[in-house]
Design a protein that fits this description.
Length: 345
Amino acid sequence: MVLMYLTYFNIYFIDSIKAINRILIGGLTDSTSSPSHFIFFSVLLISIVFLLVMSQTRTLVKTRRLLREKEQALKFIEFQKVELELKDKNITDSLIYAQRIQEALLPSETYFRKHFADSFILFKPKDIVSGDFYWIGEKDEKVFVVAADCTGHGVPGALMSMIGLKIIEKTINEDNIEVPSGILAVMNKGLEKTFSREKNIGTIIRDGMDIGLCVIDRKRKKLEYAGAFLPLYLIRDGSLVEIMADKIIIGMNPEGLPYTDHELDLLDDDIFYIFSDGYVDQFGGTENKKFMYRRFRYLLMTIHNFPVNDQKAILEENIKTWMGINEQVDDMMVIGFRPLIAETK
């Protein structure tokens, strides 16, 4: 219809304009005027206006519909946001509660110092709960110190740490095994047994832990050590000695390869450090590289004569400065102790 109107418009446009001009100056009294032209042009204008109004109305309706859809989408997004925030809060609350449970199972620094007055524990989980854990116990006048780093961090690592703690306590206190390599062998079998049950057939669970285990006999002034990937550092007379660990992960040693025992004579000023790899693996510095063992050894050599509380504070501040804006990449644990200082000052 619009095309038809436009065609008529092209034919009669000039005459119609003339007719309207004549009407404006004197009406239709002039015999040369054409009423049909005027009527047609008026109808044409009204039709065009009507079509424009309809077009605008359709556009307005479409715009309103789009706005309603956007409003509904925004409301749905807001609902999802609130729902996700609630779920996140519930997960965080659960993790915080799990953290309390884990902390209750781990020895406090105060309890640790009942055995070694000159000692500190730097323990910094990455995700509230930790895959790193430590343990201290006494049996038959011997003190057992354990530090371990389980596969992963967060909830999976924390569950592994709970399993590890129970196996250690049972092995030492119930099975009466006191030789470090023997304890690690039992732990290896225990973890393999835990993850090879029938319900796990068809799945491959490659979970294990790195561990360092010291047995201190104060009467004999002896320290025995066995480790799986976690070395032990001794600083004596201004020199650092590394007692090497075996490169055999606990829980991933199906052949039952033996772990190595190391025995040391203790001197009064000896200080030992046992740690997970989280500290040395942290990225930072001007080139955003790992901290690495070389820097860690130098730092320990620099601070080992300081009071233990100062050592802990320096280690914590140092890694914080090193990290800068980087996020923590793994659980961190560093334990320092002087074995022959037993009584709290």
